[in-house]
Amino acid sequence: MSHLSIGIVCYPSLGGSGVVAAELAAGLAERGHRVHLIAAGVPGRAPLPAGVRLHTVAVPEYPLFSHAPYEMAVAGAIVAVARQHGLDIVNVHYAVPHASSADTARRVLGAAAPRCVVTLHGTDVTRVGREPSIRAVTRYAIAAADRITVPSAYLREAAAELLGAETAAGIAVLPNFVDTELFRPAPEHERGAIDALFGGAGGGPTLIHVSTFRPVKRAADLIELLARVRRSLPARLVLVGDGPDRAATVAQAAARGLADCVRSLGAVADLPALLRQADAFVLTSESESFGVAALEALSSGVPVFAYRVGGLPEVVGDGCGALVAPFDVAALAQAVVGGLRQPSHLRAQARAHAVAHFARAAAIDRYEACFDALRRGVAAARRGTA
């Protein structure tokens, strides 16, 4: 396979779409492809690896605007990168508004436009993409892409409801992936980072939650879950990430008398080192299109306990933790307590499942094949019109 020039567009967030885009960029660059990351800031986890060039989207500010024209700025950045570096493929992550930006850029570029792959991630299809004010535009922009990918069969079905059966028939399921070398189990008894958060060694089992703390994550359920688990075990809870519900979640812990056993860290510099020391990963989302954070936990040898929603059943295999009926906090607490009482088996199974089904190399293979097929299709079409 010859090397490609690839533009990857994403949000610079700790959320799944930004992490996946950054990891994909790194994997493609390691294989010799020329990768241009287009975002308003450094996505995923800084620093970017060698071989990935960041093009920062400059969003103009002007007193006339009540909202900055981000969508047009992204389109302009795609045009600039394509003209300067000759993109073969532009892969946009999270359709709103990146699919529209890519469509605009390709119209501007005309015959020199790259092929476009839109990678849907979840709420761009299940929530914000369905808003009446943008639904028609979102549908049009996604359908205009040369290829549409999703991380789970669940999200493909959800996309079909938004896009229509004809468009959805060609959607490819390319599961998300994890760097199993970066997210690896801790040596036995390594708990220094976790224990330091709570003032020293000797504490009880530690639950960890990583998210963007948006309403869809139902963070309030985490505190109720902790309270119920602590009726049986002296558990502690570590919260990683930031978002609109973070402060309220911490306040709820204090109101329940749980402040001493909860730590809210925001973004952390070395998530893998912290994550691998936890005893259980807990997730209370009302919907997850895939669950990147859950997969990172599994790869770290940390069993996952969550509601049975969205694409999580495609990620959390048997014996890797437990999925319970949505919003049944009592059942979730019971599953966590049971899991904490047999940790060794669950930790080994979680790690083995992640390595067997979600390794990075195989996922990069799938993206490479998708991109190369589109590039070869363009070359064949151009030869036919020559």
If you had to describe this structure to a student in words, what would you say it looks like?
With 386 residues, this protein is of the alpha/beta class. The strands form two sheets. The protein has a seven-stranded parallel beta sheet, with helices on both faces. The chain has a six-stranded parallel beta sheet with strand order 10-9-8-11-12-13, sandwiched between helices. The longest helix is centred in the C-terminal third of the chain and has 26 residues, at 360-385. It has 16 helices and 13 strands. Helix 9 (220-229) packs across helix 14 and helix 12 crosses helix 15. Helix 9 links the parallel strand 8 and strand 9 (236-240).
Main-sheet strand order equals 3-2-1-4-5-6-7
Binned, the helix content reads 40-55%
Average pLDDT level: 92
| Helix and strand composition category | alpha/beta
Order of helices and strands: EHEEHEHEHHEHHEHEHEHEHEHEHEHHH
Shape: globular
Q: What summary fits the major beta sheet?
A: 7 strands, parallel
The fraction of residues in strands falls at: 5-15%
Counted beta strands: 13
Distance between the termini: 24 Å
Keywords:
about 375 residues, alpha/beta, 7-stranded parallel β-sheet, 6-stranded parallel β-sheet, 16 helices, disordered C terminus
